[in-house]
Design brief:
The complex is a heterodimer of chains A (383) and B (272).
Chain A lengths: L7 E6 H12 L1 E6 L6 H10 L6 E4 L3 H12 L4 E6 L1 H16 L4 E7 L16 H6 L8 E3 L4 H18 L2 E7 H5 L1 E6 L43 E3 L14 H16 L2 H4 L2 E4 L5 E6 L6 H10 L4 E6 L1 E3 L3 H10 L2 E5 L7 H8 L4 E5 L10 H11 L2
Parallel strand pairs in A: 2-3, 2-4, 4-5, 5-7, 6-7, 11-12, 11-14, 14-15
Antiparallel strand pairs in A: 1-8, 6-13, 10-12
Chain B lengths: L25 H15 L6 E5 L15 E4 L5 H11 L4 E7 H7 L1 H10 L3 E7 L2 E2 L5 E2 L23 H8 L3 E6 L3 H13 L4 E6 L3 H8 L4 H11 E3 H4 L11 E8 L5 H12 L1
Classes of the chains: A alpha/beta (383), B alpha/beta (272).
Chain lengths: 383, 272
């Protein structure tokens, strides 16, 4: 069996599947710091990376973990870190650095409950907006939300592919449910998995004479050790990577380039799973809140109620257009989130009043939605 | 005939001006580092220079004509750790200041030393936060008046070399900007040393340290370094009160310990 890709059917924990997805995607560097409920990713990487020629480092904190990941990425290595809320909070400045320097990497947030120390072992989709806006400045991010151990594997690969393609950090917003859950995970044959590699400038090219740093949507990455003499700075810089921290013109150009490279390619990045044929009510879910939806659809079908499902696989960039189209087709949107409604304002804004948006958290935060509660809500709101 | 500085080939074309104030020690330190590289005949393309935030971080960034990673405040050692671990062939040097490396970045520094990863750290120690306007640093002498200690500094300063030694660095040296030649030799040794090496350079910030503490202009500060420096070998002969206000210079540590990247390579072989 190839040590790189463990093709076959496994009974696997979500966090382990996430690590395996990363290795399958070509990740060869991990840096992290122990934290519940994400530690199993570090443990798996510590065992697996040396087998495939990679390196796993347990750093002194999460700040240095993301820093090391960015450093590794600049040597041309695909790099991963995994943590939970407190760790993400510490990482935020250097996540901004990764965005500003257009450094591909993947950051897994196995979300836990409540602000600060909170409840380490219970899940909450509490960091959805933090992923979007947690670092300072003006920027765009990509975030994916897995709903099963299988998707912890699949979206781990997808996250690396997006990171490489768009030269940007990509979040995997998992939670303690899906991280610790054990389910069937199918790891396909490597020939059936598509892997994206970042663009690198032609060897021997003098990067200081090569105008591309900001002039292409996604410029090739002049990785270290190839004679590119790269100057990597998170200060506002021009197309040559040269610092310019005095001109508003330079700032304007730089910020717009960073943001537009995601905005212009939104349709390519956004991934939703939509089954809405003629139903008047649709359930919007993401991550683990999706797990109750299929059961709800099955039960309501028995009552001859057709209910739609619209699941966000990518959370950021936000699929405004797709939700607007959805709102035109249905009467009522029920938004399922395991929090107090972080994405509800985004859904409402996107729906533009075309459909009523109703928010439904689980009965108790930190638990999965019970299908009964969703069925009850659907019957209450159904026109 | 066009006059060209012998080290100009190491400077990024178009970046000949400096951001340093006149009298700053950064130029001497930059020269010592580049001379060391020149004398060792190591290609600049084999290096990655990492720096943080602060005046000293601008020594390699953007001027050094090599791969340069100008990181966030306090974190260059952590970024450099990722660079070195994922490509151990690269020579990785961190050039930053005392505030960056030892206050906000102190934890990364001691842990990198503990790991004994093959990094070279050159710390410009001017005893103050220069870029932000002369605030107290963890290296500011006791009693010194700064922008944030108007009644005198009530905290004891770090002895950076003793810190590095205790944390596990395998090569530790201290010089001042007055000791440019000795500094060059120590940087050479630090680059060649397998493991975590640390070179502290006591450096003048006439604009903030000199002006606020009364140490004077650049020349006066450097005369002070000359007068007050004591070689490490002479220290044992002096009484404690004779050492007051002195700068102990020289090589503090030069030892052999297992280096992290080599240990990782061995481990990979072992588990094959």
């Amino acid at each position: 069996m190839s040590k790189r890709v463990l093709s076959g059917l496994h009974f696997m924990q979500g966090n382990v599947a996430c690590a395996e997805g990363a290795i399958t995607a070509g990740c060869r560097f991990f840096a992290g710091y122990p934290i519940t409920p994400a530690s199993e990713i570090a443990e798996r990487m510590a065992r697996r990376l040396p087998e495939v020629g990679g390196t796993c480092a347990q750093m002194e904190d999460e700040i240095s973990s993301i820093a090391a990941v960015v450093g590794a990425s600049w040597t041309g290595t695909k790099a991963l870190t995994a943590t939970s809320g407190p760790g993400i909070s510490l990482m935020m400045e250097n996540i901004g650095y990764a965005i500003a320097t257009e450094t591909p990497c993947v950051i897994v947030n196995v979300q836990r409950g409540a602000p600060s120390t909170g409840t380490p072992s219970l899940p909450l989709q509490g960091d959805v907006l933090q992923a979007r806006r947690g670092s300072h400045g003006e920027y765009e991010v990509i975030a994916l939300a897995p709903s099963s151990p299988q998707e912890m594997f699949d979206l781990s690969i997808e996250a690396f592919n997006l990171a490489e393609k768009f030269r940007t950090p990509v979040f995997i917003l998992a939670d303690a449910f899906v991280g610790h859950m054990r389910e069937e995970v199918l790891i396909p044959d490597p020939s059936k998995i598509s892997i994206v590699e970042r663009k690198i400038p032609a060897s021997g090219m003098n990067f200081s004479e090569y105008k591309s740093c900001l002039d292409e949507d996604i410029a090739p990455m002049p990785i270290f050790g190839h004679g590119f003499k790269s100057h990597v700075t998170a200060s506002t810089h021009d197309s040559f990577g040269k610092r310019n921290v005095t001109d508003p013109e330079a700032l304007d150009y730089y910020i717009k380039c960073l943001n537009n490279k995601i905005r212009k390619h939104k349709e390519e990045i956004i991934s939703v799973d939509s089954e809405v044929d003629g139903s008047e009510v649709v359930l919007i879910s993401y991550g683990t809140t999706y797990r109750a939806v299929r059961e709800v659809q099955k039960r309501l079908r028995q009552d001859k109620i057709n209910i739609g499902s619209f699941r966000l696989i990518s959370l950021w960039p936000f699929p405004e257009k797709k939700i607007e189209d959805l709102a035109r087709k249905v009467k009522i949107i029920i938004m399922l989130e395991n929090n107090l409604g972080q994405l509800v304002p985004y859904v409402k804004a996107a729906a533009k009043g075309e459909a009523e948006v109703v928010f439904l958290p689980p009965r108790m935060l930190g638990t999965l939605h019970s299908p009964d509660a969703i069925v009850k809500k659907v019957k209450e709101v159904i026109p | 005939m066009k006059m060209v500085h012998p080290l100009e080939k190491y400077i990024r074309p178009g970046f000949l001006s400096t951001t340093s104030c006149s009298g700053c020690g950064n130029g001497i330190i930059a020269q010592s580092i580049l001379r060391a590289i020149d004398e060792l005949k190591i290609k600049m393309d084999d290096f990655v220079f990492a720096s943080g935030i602060g005046c000293a971080a601008w020594i390699p960034s953007p001027s050094f004509y090599a791969d340069v990673l100008h990181t966030t405040h306090g974190r260059p050692v952590a970024f450099a750790t990722g660079v070195k671990l994922s490509n151990p062939q690269l020579k990785v040097m961190i050039i930053s200041g005392d505030g960056d490396l030892m206050a906000i970045g102190g934890n990364h520094f001691i842990h990198a030393a503990r790991r004994n990863i093959d990094l070279t750290v050159v710390c410009t120690n001017n005893g103050i936060y220069g870029m932000t306007g002369g605030q107290v640093a963890p290296t500011t002498p006791f009693g010194a008046e700064t922008a944030t200690t108007p009644y005198g500094n009530l905290e004891r300063p770090f002895d950076l070399c003793r810190l590095a030694e205790a944390a596990g660095a395998v090569y530790v040296a201290r010089w001042t900007t007055y000791h440019a030649r000795q500094l060059t030799q120590s940087v050479k040794k630090a680059i060649q040393k397998k493991g975590f090496s640390f070179v502290e350079v006591i450096s003048q910030c006439p604009v903030h340290f000199g002006r606020r503490t009364g140490a004077g202009d650049a020349a006066a500060m450097m005369r002070g370094y000359k007068k007050n420096s004591v070689g490490i070998k002479k220290v044992k002969k002096l009484k404690e009160n004779e050492l007051e206000g002195k700068i102990v210079v020289g090589e503090f540590v030069d030892r052999e310990e297992p280096e992290l990247c080599e240990e990782i390579a061995k481990m990979r072989q072992r588990i094959k």
